[in-house]
């Protein structure tokens, strides 16, 4: 959709994208082991919630979307980059319930590690891949093209595809995608009925017990903090009802070097961060999981825990290995080749504010999903060897 707009970009012919525009190979920029998305113009559409009613259009955006300064929203409304029901409105306009609100934005997506999404197995109605750490599975939040679904569409022309299970953004490993909605529903029915067995491998702090360990403790996820906690029954009088959900994970030690251990993880339920918080609960958090290392529930001394953190940090891979890095198709293309938008609060940087692209994936990797009639597997990662 091409439009000319008033304001600083009045002489620019801008092509606005919507979710209907598929990702393309040329949308990606590769630099120093990081995959960036070339910034693009995008129309965000929402419908006014009841709590928005009665607010001016500028107050609504300044209160609800705090990622940009108020002055930006004033300019966006004046220039027509923020519209109500497809029309320009004054900055004093009062929003009514259910009105269509459009925000025409110069979109900068967060970067991810530049590792290939490797296709492991293909069938007429199923494809399995090895998901790289740091890449979200599907469009969510600020991510749209820098997702497994987006990359597979851009680089392998795979669309439509339907992920049938979740993997957290920082987790790597097996991801199963259906090629049709009906096949996806069939998989999900098996998952919901408890027929599907899942296996992960993790690298954890300390010498994990030789005997199988079972963590059977409720998990409570706090969306505001972005982390889970374990709730343990303490025989109270019941005046404080539990907020957690039932959760169970089985753990079996594969190997240890006396400092860290490789552990097979078999979640029976599927709660947010379940494996991570259950390993913390057992006193053996994932060795590079800074979210749960900081509050390790053990009786080890503070000095010992600090040493564990130092050991984990000393072995963290700062970027993908040469064999894993995705090689761009056009190496002579300048990495800064994108249009600078005069109103954008992120330009001239590739990444949005708050993202520098330097993060590591968790040492947690999905290796197997199975159910009666089918099994899909993914190779072990390099960090799963302690030699």
TrEMBL record:
Gene Ontology BP terms: enzyme-directed rRNA pseudouridine synthesis
Record carries keyword RNA-binding: yes
Catalytic reaction list: a uridine in RNA = a pseudouridine in RNA
Keywords recorded for this protein, A-Z: Isomerase, RNA-binding
Keyword Kinase: no
Signal peptide segment: none
Family recorded in the similarity comment: Belongs to the pseudouridine synthase RluA family.
Protein name: Pseudouridine synthase
Organism annotation: Sesamum alatum
Phylogenetic classification of the source organism: Eukaryota, Viridiplantae, Streptophyta, Embryophyta, Tracheophyta
């Amino acid at each position: 959709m091409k439009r000319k707009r008033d304001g600083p970009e009045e002489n620019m012919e801008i092509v606005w994208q919507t979710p209907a525009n598929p990702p393309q190979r040329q949308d990606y920029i590769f630099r120093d082991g990081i995959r960036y998305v070339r910034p693009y113009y995008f129309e965000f559409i929402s419908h006014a919630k009841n709590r928005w009613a009665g607010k001016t259009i500028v107050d609504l955006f300044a209160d609800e979307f705090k990622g940009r300064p108020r002055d930006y929203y004033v300019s966006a409304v004046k220039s027509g980059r923020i519209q109500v029901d497809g029309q320009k409105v004054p900055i004093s306009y009062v929003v009514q319930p259910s009105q269509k609100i459009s925000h025409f934005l110069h979109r900068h997506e967060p970067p991810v590690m530049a590792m290939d999404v490797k296709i492991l197995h293909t069938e007429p109605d199923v494809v399995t891949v090895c998901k790289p750490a740091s890449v979200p599975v599907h469009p969510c939040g600020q991510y749209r093209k820098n997702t497994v679904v987006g990359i597979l569409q851009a680089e392998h022309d795979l669309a439509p595809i339907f992920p049938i299970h979740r993997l957290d953004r920082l987790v790597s490993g097996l991801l199963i995608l259906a090629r049709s909605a009906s096949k996806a529903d069939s998989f999900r029915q098996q998952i919901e009925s408890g027929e599907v067995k899942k296996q992960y491998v993790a690298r954890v702090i300390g010498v994990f017990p030789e005997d199988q360990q079972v963590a059977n403790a409720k998990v409570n996820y706090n969306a505001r903090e972005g982390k889970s906690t374990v709730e343990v029954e303490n025989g109270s009088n019941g005046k404080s009802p539990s907020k957690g959900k039932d959760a169970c994970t089985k753990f079996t030690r594969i190997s240890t070097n006396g400092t860290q251990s490789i552990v097979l993880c078999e979640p029976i339920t599927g709660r947010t961060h379940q494996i991570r918080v259950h390993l913390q609960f057992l006193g053996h958090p994932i060795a590079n999981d800074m979210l749960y290392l900081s509050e390790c529930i053990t009786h080890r001394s503070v000095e010992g825990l600090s040493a564990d953190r130092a050991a984990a940090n000393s072995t963290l891979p700062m970027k993908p290995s040469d064999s894993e890095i995705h090689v761009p198709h056009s190496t002579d293309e300048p990495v800064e080749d994108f249009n600078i938008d005069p109103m954008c609060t992120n330009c001239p940087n590739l990444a949005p504010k708050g993202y520098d692209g330097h993060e590591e994936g968790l040492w947690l990797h999905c290796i197997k999903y199975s159910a009666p009639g089918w099994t899909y597997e993914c190779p072990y990662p390099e960090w799963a060897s302690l030699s």
